[in-house]
Amino acid sequence: MRARPTLEKVAARAGVSRATASRVVNGSTRVAPQIRDAVNRAVEELGYVPNQAARSLVTQRADSIALVFPEPATRVFSDDPTFAGIIRGVSMEIEEADKQLVLMLTGMTGGYQRVERYATNGHVDGVVIASMHGTDPLPGILARRGVPVVCSGRPTVPSSLPYVDMDNAGGAERAVRHLMERGRRRIATIAGPQDMIAGIDRLNGYRAVLRDSDRRSIVAVGDFTRESGTSAMRQLLADDPEIDAVFVANDMMALGAMPALRQAGRRVPDDVAVVGFDDIPAASYTEPPLTTVRQPTVEMGRRLARMVLDLEEKTQVMLPTELVVRESTAF
Amino acid sequence: MRARPTLEKVAARAGVSRATASRVVNGSTRVAPQIRDAVNRAVEELGYVPNQAARSLVTQRADSIALVFPEPATRVFSDDPTFAGIIRGVSMEIEEADKQLVLMLTGMTGGYQRVERYATNGHVDGVVIASMHGTDPLPGILARRGVPVVCSGRPTVPSSLPYVDMDNAGGAERAVRHLMERGRRRIATIAGPQDMIAGIDRLNGYRAVLRDSDRRSIVAVGDFTRESGTSAMRQLLADDPEIDAVFVANDMMALGAMPALRQAGRRVPDDVAVVGFDDIPAASYTEPPLTTVRQPTVEMGRRLARMVLDLEEKTQVMLPTELVVRESTAF
DNA sequence: GGGGAGTGTGAGAGCGCTCTCTGGAAGAAT
DNA sequence: ATTCTTCCAGAGAGCGCTCTCACACTCCCC
């Protein structure tokens, strides 16, 4: 049991040549049925599994793809279920394609070089980058080196790189319109970092709706952390005490904004309505539960994987987002 | 640039044989300094990176280890930052050892066979299993097949399998003692599932402290989900309305227990003190913030990786847990 | 000064597989 | 019956690397 059987052994047992055994194992149709069966039986009996290293060596394929989380993403990894969703989605699709998923969290130092070296030397067939920042140089570098690469999130500058993005702007628009439909008049926003596409698009969506209805925007910028949500909310309240609604660019900041509102004597949703973005699990546990915009993270992972495996005809995909109405925006 | 250089090329450029080039690349000391420098220069100039497949083929090592999340774990993956911590820790250590991390989320069907086939055939040098259930057959199977395997969490039945565990019992004891020190008299518990070591040990810790102080235990059992925390809390209140403290076996259930207390007219911490376990991020956002027991998840990942890489002398490790006191257990 | 020990380098086999190329058998066409 | 085509199986090269073994050389001791 210790020594794993080789193709040679399988061939010998089936009474054929190694070449024929290989053909059967790789599903060639040009093999006589009875021989095919004999080989399959031998494979079964011996518990043969192809040696991936030997196969890769000759095919020059690795049958594995890398999922890279650049450093900034890694830091928030623990807090943000978005990444868990992407991992699950990618994993499902990879598994279906019978390939391996190599996870790379780029460390503090030299992470890029490591990924670059690794990926440009045929160790993987493609790279999925869960990049948060549009300025990330890695996707471009890899693409230029001829490595199939797909990004989660649209690059901030127009580019031909393949990506899968969420409809951030559309989600933001729906959220803000929802606030207007609920009769809110002074709608502020806590925006995300403006070097991330999610931050940019969500702010744009907010602005577009307000502009259409001739209202002025009231904006404070956070960095997607809870603490920044708290201080942005305080600032907003100081700037304009009459605010009766706030669209927060992610749930984490919304979680930070709510205590700030409470401390300022505002009730949610009675005095101020709050909408978040992401639909993290915690959003449904807050008091009151948070209205938010849900993102299809698992689906995103699947599409990323399919795209890098070249199973997808489109190379730039936008996934829909969905408004989830809860008590934080009740009448 | 397209064709990657081979060792042969490096050797030719450095004016040595392939064997010597190989020695230098693999850090053998038995090479003359000037030759070593020449080879290193050639490596640098050519941008040479060893072909892992070729190397694996001859060394019979894969230079990669698998991190397996069995199905039940995968399901809660998104909610539980414990797994994110383990991934990060494993990843750090793997990176340091210059190996690869292959992530396997075992799918709904046939996941075990897939992992088993994959791991028993030399594709990885070892397997880390983030198993939640002590009854999981996978670790035993792999160990019997001669694959180095390490589990997160002690098996429920005594075994010689290597593991890294948290001091769940100790953490629970500290939590319950803390409640007693704060003058609480009737201390109940919401226990976790009794087929998981974390559930078992935390309940045992609770019971041990109560027994020592001659109090009776008041127990409801949940399944680590938020909803189960809510219903367990209701049941506890129905069983004994005089309860003035509850030790909840994980934060998620504690998050569910708090609204149940509020609905029953109990204030936290004034009427009932609450302690959780895990220290998930949400624990510090609750109203009031939750006293809980912190687990060193990243450290756990590191130790798991070190153990499977055989860098650790001990094969059964228990990591300390730490009580984090917040407002939910104030006087 | 010759034999042994020690050290550094090269030659060459071979890891397990895929894939091209060749050969032989069988069927179709002349 | 002969040739041409078609089809399937086998022989063999070679992917890029490591590692054993043999060999050449230097150094030292008797």
Automatic annotation (TrEMBL), chains A, B:
Gene3D superfamilies: 3.40.50.2300, lambda repressor-like DNA-binding domains. Keywords: DNA-binding, Transcription, Transcription regulation. One of its GO terms (molecular function) is DNA binding. InterPro entries: HTH_LacI (IPR000843), LacI/GalR-like_sensor (IPR046335), Lambda_DNA-bd_dom_sf (IPR010982), Peripla_BP_I (IPR028082). The keyword Transcription regulation applies. Pfam families: LacI, Peripla_BP_3. This is LacI family DNA-binding transcriptional regulator. It comes from Streptosporangium oxazolinicum.
